[in-house]
Amino acid sequence: MTASTPEAAGGGAAVSTHLLRMRGISKSFLGVRVLHGVDLDLRAGEVHALVGENGAGKSTLMKILAGVHQADSGTVELDGAAVAFEHPLQAQQARVSTVFQEFNLLPDRTVAENVFLGREPRTRGMVDARRMNADTAQLLADLGLTWLTPQAPVRSLSVAGQQIVEIVKALSYDARIISMDEPTAALADEEVDLLYRLIARLRERGVAILYVSHRLKEIFDLCDRVTVLKDGALVDTVDTATLRPDELVRMMVGRPISSFFPDKLPGTAPGDVRLRVTGGGNDQLDGIDLEVRAGEITCLAGLQGSGRTEIAHALFGIARFTRGTVQVDGRTVRLRSPRQAVRTGLALVTEDRKAEGLALNQSVAANARLVLDAVDPRRAAARARRIPGLLSSLDLVARGPDQEVRFLSGGNQQKVVLAKWLATEPSVIVLDEPTRGIDVGAKHRVYTLMRELAADGVAILMVSSELPEVIGMADRVIVLRDGRIAGELPGGTTEEAVMALATGQVPGGPMS
């Protein structure tokens, strides 16, 4: 690092004070330019959105600020002093922290051990576990996170809990600048509210937050300014208050999107029941009765832990129903394994594409063929010949079929997952958070694909925690609470009606 750590900022938020200036930042990988002279500045006490389609260069710019990558050219200044971070530790010592979308936690260690990993407090040369737990407890208490205990093993936490540990870990460095990469991607609505409150507290302390998100509502709720990148170049930096959502989308994708949620295609109408569950139950679910018809998009909504993903897993034989019956296209089936589910005509696009949906070190072509071995071998070859056309129809951006999927953007990885399942020609497709962590352009393509599948007679069961997505895409909404169905709502319902059922609250009345 070429400069000493800057001194701390003053007490309250001072949005006119520049903490960070990045000028002319350029970066190439293997001869491919991914950043072209990008400028960015952050002010004390502001939340600054960094947006753009997947592959626009957002993550690379964040990693340069975090010391993970070094710029090929350009300058970085903290409080007017030039810095050049060659390692993430140098950024942390300068009180610049980053919360990456992919967690960097040790699951078999406790919350406190992860928060202070590599800098554990010591007494007479030994790790002082009591002090470490006390310091972590104080951090959690300061942030209102009294439900999270320092001694809890990280492995025991939900995805949302692990995300919060990452944020607490970043805050433990007394950071002046915090970069957050899709911080709400794994959070339920009530946990998003908690993050909003945490960010408000940080602003009051004068912390500058660089906020990367594909969720437009969060950008307009939280952010003072927004910097837009496209194809590695700076489009503009503008005050959020002066923007409309459609204008921001046009800046990001280079074309207007008149509607995030495309209309049904002509002739699309619910047909025969393709999936029926009667009295479904297991250790996590009870009394599940649902039907999904050909040509219909049915959405499972509810708070995190309500049973949405558990239904998807039960249908796919991962944590199967131990009670009740399941029928697919009128035939009663016992789904004991994913292979059996595939042969029955089901497909499952999992919530976590990297951990559950892809072989990251394998090629696009290999990933697109992953499931074909589970179908009838006599049909596998014919279905494999459809894969290039499927990838093309999904507008996949890749160097070619031999490119490893780990080098693709999140949106393009999701397209490979979709192609993998579409190649099996399913009659019922279950989509668990199908647009999580992808940009608005890729989201629109996924929504369009869903409309096309419905028009072709596929039955779609979608799990989503994004209420605008639920309202915009569902023909019917089934709301879950505590592993049971709390009620059903028609398409086009309101967010308030969904949340009333999800929380057990009678509109205008007390919690039940």
The order of strands across the largest sheet is: 6-9-10-3-11-12
Strand element count: 22
The general outline is globular
Strand content: 15-25%
Q: Termini distance?
A: 57 Å
Structural class call reads alpha/beta
- Gyration radius (Cα, Å) is 24 Å
| Biggest sheet character | 6 strands, mixed
Chain-averaged pLDDT: 87
Q: Which percent bin holds the helix content?
A: 25-40%
Number of helices: 18
The low-confidence parts are 1-16, 507-512
What are the key terms here?
512 residues; 32% helix; disordered N terminus; disordered C terminus
Give me the secondary-structure topology.
Elements: E1 18-29, E2 32-43, E3 47-51, H1 58-66, E4 73-78, E5 81-83, H2 88-93, E6 96-99, H3 111-115, E7 122-123, E8 126-127, H4 129-142, H5 159-171, E9 177-181, H6 189-204, E10 208-212, H7 216-222, E11 225-230, E12 233-239, H8 245-253, E13 273-281, E14 288-293, E15 297-301, H9 308-315, E16 323-328, E17 331-333, H10 338-344, E18 346-349, H11 353-357, H12 364-368, H13 377-384, H14 387-393, H15 410-422, E19 428-432, H16 440-455, E20 459-463, H17 467-473, E21 476-481, E22 484-490, H18 495-503
Parallel strand pairs: 3-10, 3-11, 6-9, 9-10, 15-20, 15-21, 18-19, 19-20
Antiparallel strand pairs: 1-2, 1-4, 4-5, 7-8, 11-12, 13-14, 13-16, 16-17, 21-22
Describe this structure in a few short sentences.
Helix content is 32%, strand content 24%. The chain contains 18 helices and 22 strands. The model is unreliable at 1-16 and 507-512 (pLDDT under 50).
